[in-house]
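User: Need the bound-state model for magnesium ion:
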Amino acid sequence: KPYPLRMEGEVIAGFGRGSKDLGIPTANLPVASESSDPTNWIHTSRSGVYFGWASIRFPPTHTDLSLPPSLPSFAQSPPLSDLKIPSYDQKSDSTWRIYPMVMSMGFNPFYKNTVRSAEVYIMNQFEKDFYGAWMRISILGFIRPELDYVDRESLIRDIHTDVDVALKSLGREGWWVGGEERTWLGGE
Ligand code: ADP
Ligand code: MG
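Assistant: Bound-state model below.
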């Protein structure tokens, strides 16, 4: 399946355990039920972890979220300055902000979900939650299939590896947000 794959929607409440249970919050997007659109790539692509870019349009009440992007400490190799991530050049008056992300898509075997979910971990520190904000994602690649885990620690360790893999890919020149993706993520 050719990348990028795109998806957008309002950030909704998920299962209420991302940040509490793992220390890794995931912004959840609604996934239409299979029957409503069987051709939608969300239902035909592989379950697993993907990486790419996410952009968020913050409501006016959330303007204080326009912080300089900062990555969690486990994601800081290679150094930020070497990554040349486009979001760092963004104009501060832009309502859309672009961030690197990893996304888990599928049934999440560790939690034994019965519905398919799309959960996006954004590599940025936010001052507060942004439920209700509009989010767009552009998926550029597949990292690994969905796995079950013996314990939380192994799950967390793997997510940290996913973040590392994502940043290394996105930091290379060919993966920067340009052209049509830039337009899409910039909200036009
Ligand atoms: P839920 O189960 O409701 O999705 P989570 O514990 O997964 O709860 O937290 C997700 C929420 O945390 C997001 O909807 C968003 O508002 C907020 N959030 C804060 N920082 C981040 C981040 N870096 N990545 C994703 N979501 C974040
Ligand atoms: Mg979540």
